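[Automated response] Your request has been received and processed.

Submitted sequence:
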Amino acid sequence: MGSRRTFTDEFKAQMVKLYESGKSRKDIVKEYELTASALDRWIIQSQGTGSFKEKDNRSIEENELIELRKENKRLQMENDILKQAALIIGRR
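Generated structure:
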């Protein structure tokens, strides 16, 4: 295998349309040199959210986890800043 190929949203939509118009998954994968898992993901994304962007296809739980990780990182930074301030004030 060579380097990983990237596909435009337009290309992905065309592949999904081919599938929806009756062309078999096997034929699409073979003809366009795709992986079956990529085509399956595009079909699910298209039928689900209509978007091929990863962020649009995350579950509520995945989005919540990302937000919680961001908030946790911010709170850790604030905590470190407060510790440093306490040390500075304590030296006076």
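Summary generated for your ticket: The chain has two domains: 1-57, 58-92. The chain has a mean pLDDT of 89.
If you did not submit this request, please reply to this message.
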